[in-house]
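Researcher: Please translate sequence to structure tokens.
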Amino acid sequence: MRRGCTSLILAAIVALWNGSQLMAFDLQGHRGARGLLPENTLLGFARALEIGVTTLETDLAVTRDGILVLSHDPVLNPDIARGPDGAWLAAPGPAIHSLTLAELGRYDVGRIRPDSKYAKTFPAQVPSDGQRIPTLAQLFDLAGASGKSPRFNVETKLSPDKPDETPGADTFARLVVEAIRSAKLEARVTIQSFDWRTLLIAKRLAPEIETVCLTYEKTLEDRTEGGTRKASPWLAGLDPASFAGSVPRLAAATGCGTWSPYFKELNAAAVAEAQALGLKVVPWTVNTREDIGAIIDMKVDGLISDYPDRAREVMAARGMPLP
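Model: Translation complete:
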């Protein structure tokens, strides 16, 4: 009898542990819910919260007056931005860092230019004229007023190849850390980047804030200067050759808690290797139901999607607890 009771208790513990693992699956709404509503707008983030996500994923730029705003591009994107006169921008720019917040607020980002490649990629996105590029503080306020407690995954958008478009890595990282601490959200925000300089600086300034190593094949590629091989400048001085070419080991060396690769560059062996190193694995940007299912089958810790509604459908069909 005791043996039978012990077996039942153990089975219950295992079931609870497995349930807690499943509940930990991190569904992130990419730029809000980009497949459904204009990217990086308060309207899009509100929709992601309605759908039910664990994390709001977004991108950061810095205005001339030092305000963190939500924009994937360091310069205004002519595929989504219209000027004060209502006309589409003729070319990329100006740089957000060259504009004050008041000047930036004159641009409308509520719809996609109809004749663009972007429009063909997201044909179901519902336009909403009058949307402005919001501040990070406004996103925090929106979430706070929603009655929910999502996490935030904020990306520093800067490039070692285009230093004039943004503030330097030190300034950028400091502003992000200060904003997170000011909002008292250290436990609910991760800082991610392809440019790992900001991750190392942020970790030094605020070891309590988790960092996320974004990777893409192009940012991992070596450079050749004067016939001499040099590691990618995106990696903040780290060299993949020192880690036998292992991207998970490279990411772990930065102190990141999460590795976030492009989903097409991921396989189950790499997931297992990363998790054995203590890293969570959350690939980007997974949009079709088939790809979402295949990525979940790799035992990842979460995923980033333009269509969090589709991801929830796949999760529900597999019996996974939903956010």
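Researcher: Any highlights?
Model: The two ends are 39 Å apart (CA to CA).
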